[in-house]
Design goal:
Layout: E1 25-31, E2 35-41, E3 47-54, H1 60-71, H2 77-80, E4 81-87, H3 90-97, E5 104-111, H4 125-131, E6 132-139, H5 154-164, E7 170-175, H6 183-196, E8 201-203, H7 212-224, H8 226-242, E9 248-252, E10 258-260, H9 261-266, H10 274-287, E11 292-297, E12 302-308, E13 311-312, E14 319-321, E15 324-326, E16 334-336, E17 342-347, E18 350-357, H11 362-365, H12 376-383, H13 397-402, H14 405-426, E19 435-438, E20 455-456, H15 464-471, E21 474-483, H16 484-487, H17 489-507, E22 515-524, E23 531-540
Parallel strand pairs: 1-4, 4-9, 5-6, 5-7, 7-8, 11-19, 19-20
Antiparallel strand pairs: 1-2, 2-3, 9-10, 11-12, 12-13, 12-16, 14-15, 17-18, 21-23, 22-23
Helix pairs in contact: 1-8, 5-6, 10-15, 12-14
Amino acid sequence: MAESTSESTSESTSPPAPVAPEARLRVGIDVGGTNTDAVIVDEQDRLLAKVKHPTTADVTTGILSALRLVLAQLDGAAARVSHVMLGTTHATNAILERRNLNRVAALRLGGPATHAVPPLTGWPDDLRTAIACGSVVVDGGVEMTGEPIVPLDEDAVRRFLDGVAEQAEGVAVSGVFSPVLSDQEFRVEELVREVLGDVPVSLSHEIGSLGLLERENACVLNAALVAVAGRVTAGLGDAMNANGISAEAYIAQNDGTLMSLDYVRRYPILTIGSGPTNSMRGASYLTGVTDALVVDVGGTSTDIGILTSGFPRESSTAVEIGGVRTNFRMPDLVSLAIGGGTIVGSANGRVTLGPGSVGYRLTAEALVFGGPVPTLTDAIVASGRGGGIGEIGGPDAATRAAAHEELLRRAIVEVDARIEEGVDRVKTSGRELPLIAVGGGSGLIPEVLAGVAGVHRPENHDVANAIGAAIASVSGELDRVFAYGKDGRDESIAEAVRLARDEAIRAGADPAYVEVVEIEEVPLAYLTEPVARVRVKAAGPLKTH
C-alpha cells in the first residue's frame, strides 16, 4: 500500500471552522506506514478539514490521534458525524509479517481427482507454519455444468474436524467448481457448526472465482485474517467512542468501495489493496477525471494503476499476496519499492534506493528534519520538485540536504527511470492518458513524463487516500459460472444481478438506490451445453437511518 509521507502536520494552524447544526459529516481515515491521514467532508463531498499524523507502532493509537486532531478543526464536528470510513493495512501487514493470524484447517472437496496437489502447495514455509493446523482432500466437488463428480463424503469431513478440534481457530472450505454450484460448501459449513461450534468458516465460492488452487489459497488467507478483522473493527469503535462519535462505520475494500463492519469480519481479505484504490478514487474526485493513470507515492512504496470510469481497473490474472497466488478481485497495480521514506545510499559507485524505509520515523531520521538518514524526501527537497511539497522541513531543509546533493540528484534520476518503466508496465495500449500524482511523496513525480498526456498534481493530493475513503460508495459483486441449458440465459443473468444487488445491500448499501454498474459475460467453449462465466457488480450510496 502506498502511504502518505512528506508532510508531517499533526495540528492545523487555522482556526476551527463553524459547522451548521443540520450538517451531516463524513470522516475518512487511511492508515499508512508513514502517516495516518484523516479528512472530514460534508454532504456535497466538500473537504472541510484534513490532518496527517505519524502512524504509530500499534497503529490504533495513530487512528485515535488523527481522528481527534481532525475533529478539533471544526466546532461541534463530533456530534455531526454520520459515517466514519477507514482504509487500513492491518490485513496486509499481518500476512507479510506472519503475525496475529488464526490457525486454519483447510478442507478441500475434490477427491478423488485432486489429491496430486494437496492444499497449501507452494506456500512459503513460514506462512504455512503460521497458519496451517491441518488439511485434507475429501471426496466431493462438481463438474463445470454443476453435476456432482462424486457424493460429498460427510463422514470424512467429520473425522477431519474431530482431529483438528483442539487447534482450529478457523476453517476454509474449497470445492471443485463451487462457483458453479455451492451446495456442498454450504453443507460442510453446517457440519463445522455441528462438530466445532461457533468457529469462523470461510467458503471459497464467496471469495474467489474459477481456478481451484488460487481460490483455495484466498479462502485460507481469509480464514486466517478473521481475528485481525475483529481487532480492527473493535479498535475503530474504541477510537470513535473516545472522540464522542456515534455513527456508522465502514471499512474500505480493494475495489474502491466500502463494506460494513459485519461484512469485513466475514471477508477481511477484501481489505487488502484498499489503500491504493482509495487513492485512485480520491484522485478521480480531486481532478474530475474518470480515465487516467494514477501514481500514489507513499512512505514505503509507489503504486501505479489505471482509472476506468472512475474506478480502479481490476486485475484479470492471479495476484500474489505474501508469496501465495490468489484469484479474488484485486486492483491491477504495479507496485514499486520506492517512497518518500526510502533510504538512499550508494554501493560500488552506484546509487541505491532502499529497499529499507524509515517509515513513520521520517520526521526524526530524514536529513531535512535534522536526522542522519538520506531519504527520497530529502531528494524531493534538494530537487525543488512538487511546488509547495519542496518546502518540507522548514527554511533550513534545503541546507541540510545540500551536503548530500550529488547523491540525492542521482537518486532522482533513478526514480524517474523506475516511474517511467512502471507506467509502461501498467498500460495495456499505446493510448496516452493523463497522469494524476497523489500521496504525500508525489513530489517524486516529474512535471514531464514520457508516455502520458500531462502530469497533474491536484490540490489536497497529499490526503487523496483518506478522501477516497470518505466519498466511497458500497458495492457487491458476483463472479460465477452459469449453465444456460438448465435455466436459460435471461434467467441466469437476472439471478446474477439479484445476487450482486444482495451482496451490495449486505455490505451496507441503501437498497433503494443500488444500481448495476457492470455486467461481464464470458462464454466457455468446448462444453456440451451453453455455459458462461458471469460477473456482475452493483453499487449504491451508504445506507442511512
